Amino acid sequence: MRAVVQRCTRGSVTVGGEVVGALRERGGLVVLLGVEVGDGVDEATKMADKLAKLRIFEDAAGKMNLAVGDVGGSMLVISQFTLAGDCSGGNRPSFVRAARPEVAEPLVDAVVARLRAPQPSGHGMHVETGRFRTEMKVEILNDGPVTIVLDVAPRAGATT
Fold it and tell me: Tell me: the pLDDT tens digits for 120-148?
């Protein structure tokens, strides 16, 4: 599972002219999330935990030492199968590593559910989403700019 995470002051996703998800007023993280072949519930859990604990917000000393929850931020999670694209064989990406939609959608939902779930089993965060399997327009105002790529690899021998 791969995520491109951006610290943002604003972020929204629109489908057919309708805003279907947006960061709250305080900003937060826009997460583009790709599910790959072999990913499962373990990877979804690890990804949610990494996202919730990722310390890319500045503390009083100006150091990136705070997580999104520490600053009262929210998250916007958007499924993006193109993160599994592989261009090593040429200029046209291959998406054979991308999980099939019927596998990917419940795993994206699992990441979001863990982020939203109250503590101690989850993180109690405000999370909005895009709309799976639709053409989306994503607007991002990156703060910093700060962009991090997170990878959570499947366990050896894991199958979906």
Answer: 999 999 999 999 999 999 999 999 999 99
Which one is catalytic: 57, 80, 147, 159?
80
| Burial per residue of 68-83, b for 16 or more beta-carbon CB atoms within 10 angstroms, e otherwise | bbeeebbbbbbbbbeb
Annotated catalytic residue 6: no
Q: 0.90 cut: is pTM over it?
A: yes
Is residue 119 flagged as an active site residue?
A: no
Torsion, Cα of 138, 75, 48, 130 (10° steps): -40
**Are 45 and 114 within 8 A, CB to CB?**
yes
Domains of the chain are 2-151 (3.50.80.10)
**Tokens describing residue 113:** 């559910």
- Active-site annotation holder among 6, 57, 81, 129: 81
